[in-house]
Amino acid sequence: MILERPAESRVRLLLRESLILDVTEEICWLLATRGVRRSELAKTLGIPRSSVVRLLDGDAQTPISRIADVFWALGAKLEVHAVPIDKQEAP
Q1: Using the 8-state DSSP alphabet, how is residue 9 labeled?
Q2: pLDDT grade, residue 10 (50/70/90)?
Q3: Contact (Cβ atoms closer than 8 angstroms) between residue 42 and residue 88
Q4: Where does residue 45 rank: exposed (0-12), middle (13-18), buried (19+ CB within 10 A)?
Q5: Nearest-CA neighbor of 67 among 13, 26, 18, 39?
Q6: What is the pTM of this model?
Q7: Higher pLDDT, 51 or 60
Q8: Domains in the chain and their CATH numbers?
Q9: Which residues, other chains included, contact 52 with Cβ-Cβ below 8 Å and sequence gap of 6+?
Q10: Where are the beta strands (DSSP E) in the chain?
């Protein structure tokens, strides 16, 4: 069993929240620049508007496939690049 030290748990949580924020900010930017309303996005995807709202509120349970569909519906592709975690930046 692997036990995390408290500092490692905080770093993991910070990185998770940072990723969620980056993705939701990118979607909001696309919605704004393309003039697409949340209700229009939901209709295009065939999902309830409440699902779009939850995604934009940072719902960590949103599947990656749903995120990919959102970017597709907005005429964009999300690119992901992994970078090493700088241990010096850890709280």
Answers
A1: H
A2: confident
A3: no
A4: middle
A5: 26
A6: 0.83
A7: 51
A8: 18-80 (1.10.260.40)
A9: 38, 39, 41, 42, 45, 70
A10: none
